[in-house]
Every structure is written in C-alpha cells, then in structure tokens.
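Good morning C.,

I know you're traveling, so I'll keep this short. The sequence:
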Amino acid sequence: MKQNDRAIVLEAILSERERQDASFGEQNHDDSWWNLLITQRQGEVAKELFSYSETKLFIELIQTCATYMSWAECVKRRLNNGK
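The tokens, ready to paste straight into the viewer:
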C-alpha cells in the first residue's frame, strides 16, 4: 500500500467524522446502542459487496470506520470523566 493511499483513507475518515458531528452533534450513546449503529453500518457494507461499485463500497467502509471512531471517542470521553 502506498503511503498516499493511507493518507487519503485517513483524510476521508476524518472528513466523514466532521460531517457526522455537523449532522448529529457529539454522540454519547451507551455501548449497546453503538453496537446497533455499527451493525446497521456493517449491513450497508455487506449490501455494497454485491453492488459491484467500488465507489459505493469505499463510501460505506469510510462511514463505518468513522462510526467506529465516534464510538471510540465516546469511550475516551467516559474514561476522561472517570466512568
């Protein structure tokens, strides 16, 4: 993998996180809710496996990664708050 590809993917994830924050604000769900969100996102990825569109698959993967990142940020906030 070229370093440039990695940078492009990371930038896409960060951009999606910004979009999510602009759309939904800071998300602080419990872990069971996060798991439901991720399960839904993974279902979207699975659907795109059969669409034969690399672009759509890429978008779904980025959105899923960004959702995982949002969950990790939520867990980090809880850790910072001693919960």
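Safe travels,
E.
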